[in-house]
């Protein structure tokens, strides 16, 4: 039986932005999600995605990774840096588990292969709108089999703090950037060190880079 958003949620969500430079694909996604959203906006590049989100932030973004200009992942990073927290679901041909891991680490809530789209996309949207993370099951299995890295459980805020630490910002500066107290930053920093099993800032940055938790 086909899965529908209305069936699972009761009422449609307000708005989704769909970013894909292949118009036929974008229109196919639009047809698939018509029951799920009151408004569907189609864009064809990373820059257009960023501009659309700034104009009127949607409930969720469904984006390809490879697009003209900036990639879907870089567009998401830019949005996250500007404080936009809506879920991002990537719908892509990239079937490498390493790319999926990069997308999730960068802040994505969902990662689905175009070859298995359809009901799976609707299911993923229902999940991410409920605060869950969804990865195409075959990719998730590959990631478990192929990765030698431990999976760390850091929150979005902790990952942002980790990025700031890696850029050399002090706790007071990070607190100002995030609009929280210095004590809150120090508390998160301590929790990150505990999670990674390190005891100092330099060691923390090295370990985070080694584990692929931060990018330059």
Q: What can you tell me about this protein's structure?
A:
- With 216 residues, the chain is an alpha/beta fold.
- The protein has two domains: 5-146, Response regulator (Rossmann fold); 156-210, Winged helix-like DNA-binding domain superfamily/Winged helix DNA-binding domain (Arc Repressor Mutant, subunit A, Orthogonal Bundle).
- It contains eleven helices and six strands.
- The protein has helices spanning 5-9, 23-33, 46-55, 72-81, 97-106, 119-129, 137-146, 156-166, 171-178, 182-196, 201-210; strands at residues 13-19, 37-43, 60-63, 88-92, 110-113, 134-135.
- Strand 4 (88-92), helix 5 and strand 5 (110-113) form a beta-alpha-beta unit.
- The longest helix is centred in the C-terminal third of the chain and has 15 residues, at 182-196.
- It starts with a helix and ends in a 6-residue tail after the last helix.
Question: Which fold does the CATH topology of the largest domain refer to?
Answer: Rossmann fold
CATH superfamily of the largest domain: Response regulator
Overall pLDDT confidence: 84
Instruction: Assign the structural class, choosing from mainly alpha, mainly beta, alpha/beta, alpha+beta, or little secondary structure.
Output: alpha/beta
Largest sheet: 6 strands, parallel
How are strands sequenced across the largest beta sheet? Answer: 2-1-3-4-5-6
As a percent range, the share of strand residues is: 5-15%
The gyration radius over C-alpha positions equals 18 Å
Q: Estimate nothing, just give the exact number of structural domains.
A: 2
Low-confidence segments, given as residue ranges, are 144-148
């Amino acid at each position: 039986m086909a899965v529908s958003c209305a069936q699972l949620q009761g009422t449609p969500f307000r708005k989704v932005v769909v970013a894909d430079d292949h118009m036929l694909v974008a229109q196919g996604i639009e047809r698939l999600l018509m029951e799920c959203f009151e408004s569907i906006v189609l864009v064809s590049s990373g820059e257009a995605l960023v501009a659309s989100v700034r104009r009127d932030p949607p409930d969720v973004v469904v984006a390809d990774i490879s697009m003209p200009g900036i990639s879907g992942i870089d567009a998401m990073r830019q949005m996250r840096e500007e404080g936009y927290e809506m879920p991002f679901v990537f719908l892509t041909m990239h079937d490498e588990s390493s790319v999926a891991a990069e997308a999730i680490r960068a802040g994505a809530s969902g990662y689905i292969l175009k070859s298995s789209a359809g009901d799976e996309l609707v299911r993923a949207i229902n999940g991410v709108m409920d605060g869950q993370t969804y990865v195409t099951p075959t990719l998730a299995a590959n990631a478990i089999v192929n990765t030698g890295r431990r999976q760390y459980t850091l929150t979005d805020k902790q990952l942002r703090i980790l990025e700031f630490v890696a850029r050399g910002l002090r706790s007071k500066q990070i607190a100002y950037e995030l609009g929280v107290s210095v004590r809150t930053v120090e508390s998160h920093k301590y929790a990150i060190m505990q999670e990674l099993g390190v005891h100092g800032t330099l060691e923390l940055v090295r370990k985070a880079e080694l584990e692929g938790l931060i990018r330059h």
